[in-house]
Design goal:
This protein is an alpha+beta fold. The protein is built from eight helices and 14 strands. The protein has one domain.
């Protein structure tokens, strides 16, 4: 495994949606998620991590060390069993099994090295791969302005049953869309956890930035409309633990509507201002 990263990072992502549903809420009939108090749109960390996982899996398909642990159609126990087989084949002692299982999973699965995982599934009652807190964490994304969720009625010619086909020529359906919204989300990369736990490396970090900037490019769908990653601001500290609280860095990025704009309908309706007065020991890179 490559050497773990040595610097702490904090980062801010700006992405937008046009005529789509960026993250449906199953508790609200799959309407776009919304903060009931403020009317601001929400996108969960789980949704964004799924996009990153999908991009890495597409880019690194069948590449050793870059498999994806959390994926559709693959039971967690099936992947955990590989660690059990590895321990048996290498005749690892009982006292070393837990660490060996953890290291095996981190070495082979990119998303475990990155985001961590809960692997307490007890394969055949004999192995607990443990719970790993990953060095990369994301918060919820929140829109810069209140969103309006529109319900669009659609018709389709595909009839569900043969009986219905005799009685009608089409069926009605509904879609929920956000006409336009710009979302902001912050994230964190802990060099300390990378060194102590997962071995998240510089190569893994470079892949993370690449995956974030491209996470919507190979994940288009009619339901999500047009989604685009607009900005990725990366703050790099000059040591493992960092030199200042992350909120002080995030506050250096100001996003607001241009004068005269009351209802945003495109990215150019916003202005991005970035303060150049950074704390000593921190550098900012604009990745997009």
């Amino acid at each position: 495994m490559s050497e773990a990263i040595k610097n702490r990072y904090d980062f801010t992502i700006l992405f937008d949606v046009e005529n789509g549903n960026p993250n449906g809420d199953p508790d609200a009939g799959n309407m776009p998620r919304i903060d009931a108090e403020t009317g601001l749109g929400l996108v969960t960390d789980v949704c964004l991590k799924r996009k990153i996982r999908n991009y890495v899996e597409t880019l690194k398909e069948n590449t050793e060390g870059f498999r994806i642990y959390i994926k559709q159609g693959v039971p967690l126990n099936q992947s955990d069993e590989e660690a059990l087989t590895y321990i048996k084949d290498n005749k690892i002692q009982d006292k070393d099994k837990d660490i060996a299982a953890r290291d095996f999973m981190c070495k082979n699965f990119y998303d475990i090295r990155t985001f961590g995982a809960v692997m307490t599934t007890f394969v055949k009652g004999k192995l607990n791969c443990g719970q790993i807190r990953g060095p990369v964490q994301l918060g919820f994304a929140r829109s810069l302005d209140p969103i309006v969720s529109q319900e669009i009625t659609i018709t389709r010619v595909a009839i569900t049953t043969a009986k219905d086909a005799k009685e009608k020529q089409n069926e009605m359906g509904k879609k929920f869309i956000v006409p336009y919204a710009l979302y902001r989300v912050e994230g964190f990369v802990s060099a300390n956890l990378a060194r102590k736990t997962t071995g998240f490396s510089e190569a893994d970090l470079a892949l993370l930035w690449q995956a974030i900037t491209n996470m919507f490019e190979n994940d288009h769908s009619a339901a999500r409309g047009k989604m685009t990653c607009r900005e990725l601001f990366v703050f790099k500290h000059n040591n493992e633990l960092g030199v200042c609280p992350s909120y002080k860095l995030f506050d250096k990025i100001h996003v607001h509507l241009k004068d005269g704009i009351t209802v945003p309908r495109c990215y150019s309706d916003y202005e991005i201002e970035v303060s150049d007065s950074l704390p000593e020991g921190v550098e900012l890179k604009r990745m997009i």
